[in-house]
Amino acid sequence: MTRERILQQARTWVQEQLAGDSSGHDWWHIYRVTELAMRIGKAEKADLFVCELAALLHDIADEKLNPSAQAGMAKVATWLEANGVPARDAAHVLAIIGTMSYKGGNNKPVRTREAQVVQDADRLDAIGAMGIARVFAYAGWKGHLMHDPSQAPRTAMTPEEYRSGKNTAINHFYEKLLKLKGLMNTGTARQMAEHRHQFMETYLEQFYREWEGSR
Ligand code: ADP
Ligand code: NI
């Protein structure tokens, strides 16, 4: 199969798999991450086939959408083989999606340039205007409050606490989103993150003003 054909098949499969998801992993998140990964990958001279394929598949194995993280990875491995992805690229894609998730900041740093590119792309879609939209969508999906002034943000947490702890949308900014700018792997993404980060800071200032009845 040609690379373009593989990518086409991947788009179709991912759209089927994530159809109807409202936890923040819907197809349009995948679309945006793929666009970002291509842009960053070009600027960073990465292997664009691996970047695009890993970006397309990066959330298929998410433990929120599978019986377990291992089961999710096995599903992707089976797909890669069935669709004729060269073994080397398949192994690389699996390594990327297996290491890139945030998990409360407890995961090891990713290694290859392509892994860095795709992780940066995923992180950019978690900040800025898009990040704000996703954080409130996720909180609604989980049944969390937008904000509760009596609940302070948690400073350190295990992966289990990160996944399951009671939380508010506003606290998630402090527990994750405002840290992402400083965690970008590539110079290209670091620059793009600057603008998105500033936008969130401005948003939070206005949020607190309105919370207290100001304009
Ligand atoms: P990752 O793949 O980095 O682990 P997640 O799957 O945890 O990311 O998050 C997907 C989206 O949902 C992100 O935009 C993230 O900011 C948001 N999100 C994750 N956890 C929470 C939470 N506890 N409260 C609000 N939003 C969250
Ligand atoms: Ni993602």
Topology:
Layout (H helix, E strand, L loop, with lengths): L2 H16 L8 H17 L4 H10 L11 H14 L4 H13 L13 H12 L3 H15 L16 H6 L4 H12 L6 H25 L4
The structure holds adenosine-5'-diphosphate and nickel (II) ion.
Which short descriptors sum up this protein?
single chain; 215 residues; mainly alpha; Hypothetical protein af1432; 10 helices; globular; binds adenosine-5'-diphosphate; binds nickel (II) ion
What number of domains? 1
**Share in helix:** 55-70%
Overall geometric form: globular
Distinct bound molecules: adenosine-5'-diphosphate, nickel (II) ion
- Write down the secondary-structure element order: HHHHHHHHHH
Can you walk me through this structure?
This protein has one domain: Orthogonal Bundle (Hypothetical protein af1432). The chain is built from 10 helices and no strands. The chain has 215 residues and is mostly helical. The chain is globular and about 60 Å long. Helix 6 packs parallel to helix 10 and helix 7 packs across helix 10. The longest helix has 25 residues.
Q: Care to give the gist of this entry?
A:
The protein is an all-alpha fold and 215 residues long. It has a single domain, classed as Hypothetical protein af1432 (Orthogonal Bundle). It has ten helices and no strands.
